[in-house]
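Dear all,

This email documents one entry for the complex benchmark we are building for the journal club exercise. For each entry we list the sequence lines for every component of the assembly. Then comes the predicted three-dimensional structure of the complex as a token string, followed by one or two observations. Please use this as the template for your own entries, and keep the labels exactly as they appear.
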Amino acid sequence: MFNMLRSLWQYRHFVLSSIRNELISRFASSKLGGLWMIINPLAQVAIYALILSNVLSAKLPGIDNKYAYAIYLMAGLLAWNLFSEIVSRCLNLFVEQGNLMKKMSFPRIALPTIVTGSCILNNILLFIAMLGIFALLGHQFSATMLWLIPLTLVVLILSLGLGLILGIMNVFVRDIGQGFPIILQVWFWFTPIVYPESIIPESYRGLLMLNPMYPITSAYHKVLVYNQSPDLIHIASIFGVALALMLVSLFLFRQASAEMVDVL
Amino acid sequence: MSLLKVDNLGKAFRSYRSEWLRFARWLGLPTKPSEEHWVLRHINFAIEAGEAIGIIGQNGAGKSTLLKMITGTLQPTEGQVQINGRIAAILELGMGFNPELTGRQNVFHAAGLMGFNPQQIQDAMADIEAFAEIGEYFDQPVRAYSSGMQMRVAFAVATAYRPEILIVDEALSVGDSYFQHKSFSRIREFQEQGTTLLIVSHDRNAIQSLCDRAILLENGAVIKDGNPEEVFDFYNAIIAEKENATVEVKKLDNGKVQTSSGTGEARIEEIALYNSKGEVADFIAVGEQLELKIKVKIYQDIETLVLGYGIKDRLGQVMYGTNTWHTNQVINNPKAGNSYHFKIAFAANFGVGSYSVVLALHAQDTHLESNYDWRDLSLIFNVVNLEKVQFSGCSWLPSEISVK
């Protein structure tokens, strides 16, 4: 484990330049360039807001801003986008980079690190854009939002742990790469992001606790919509789960890295 | 201590009845692979600083698996590789180049992938740009490059820092000849400065001119380790055996390998090429004295017999050819059952390349009339430049240049 970190440190410049190159090449020869990174999720927000706000706005309790639903949506999507982007990119990471892994010798751990870095960067830019829109909607920045820093960290560890496990297994069983995006879609709709949890019937609401993304989105909601501190016990428990997944994934990564190249 | 030591190295690719059994094994459960396919096994050798080693072998012999284990992209199943120094590989040039980035940015990226820090890369950048010689393209996106330009940049990065061990794959033969020459001289420069070379190639000429040792791999084992000439001869023997075409073409009278055109009154029975040491050879040094020995058997009484021979290059152009009519050595009234042994001595004053021998038996000065037997490609030999000055072209015309 220590060796892994040390070699990663030696390759820190490579990781940084890869993240930069990824940005450059993604937006090369597009007029709006980096703006697309923000336009896409915001368009998603606009669509949901347009279609669902009339249905749902009345049911969003405890806030009197008439744009409350849009803010609620954005808060949930900020968390979900980070999660789903990291998981789905890790899922295909080793298969996509197979050629490179077969031909060049470099610390493999650099690959997920690059993914993480570029996803975080995206998320930060998205957050800044959201702050701008919040301001337009009359929802000001507050110190409570600093809670997002530890929350982001929890999302990161959770998604990286899960993504790495799936990504490693996907090298050997490619069905995972095809099947998991479907699960991710379902998962999205089973997490209160576009709807408030209050519309779930009381008797089923307990099931939400089985969804590791639920405590996270609800913490994002509390922080961004209601300006309250998140429920620390929930966050701590999900942090524990995330940490456990992360350790399992690193253990698997060490066990599997020799064999991964064999089958790529 | 050796620079590189390969100790009982082996690589097996394992397959499982179900991939879940593989996952279970990582978690420590004692599951067994359903099949183990050993690509390499019991490989041992050591390489000292400054050596140049050619690795040869047929496709599938395990060359690339061996190289991948040495560079560290593949993990050995058993045994180990000990390396005391930095390895650079010119295996897949241009790996990981991003078409949207400029040459300079890609160089930065590629050198980072090799583990260098920005300062080191900055320091080498001017050299890399100068070596690649692609002018202002260096600051344009790689998608605008020709494949040759991409090759140049890739080679320039791969060899920007002198490694202790340099692995050169056949990729080297890509690119225009000017750059090929340039890259070869850089490799030689490294070698002079003490870099050990590991070269994989089927090109005997390249290996013999660069290497002082060769390792022959066959079916995942080292079957010969010694001086390149000896190893290559052995390798060719294996190939010849496999292709069922021996260096000496023998006993065509069984009727099965009848490749002749002709009426068959007289037939070529045996043909062999001997070098100056009197050994059968298919690799010949420029200028070496050769003897072509041909055995002819007469099947019917004929009036006259003329033997013609010619030597063609790989494109089929005749380099030289004559016959016994022109040399006034016509055999008159040969009787059925007689055999004649012809010996043609000549010097291999050819350029480097592959040549074939064409033979003909006929009655007059040309084979247009009474063509008894005609063999194209009856024998193939290769000319390599071992001790002459570097030259181009298909003929060896020794010259002396004086400067005033």
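Observations: Chain A has one domain: 2-263. The mean pLDDT of chain A is 84.
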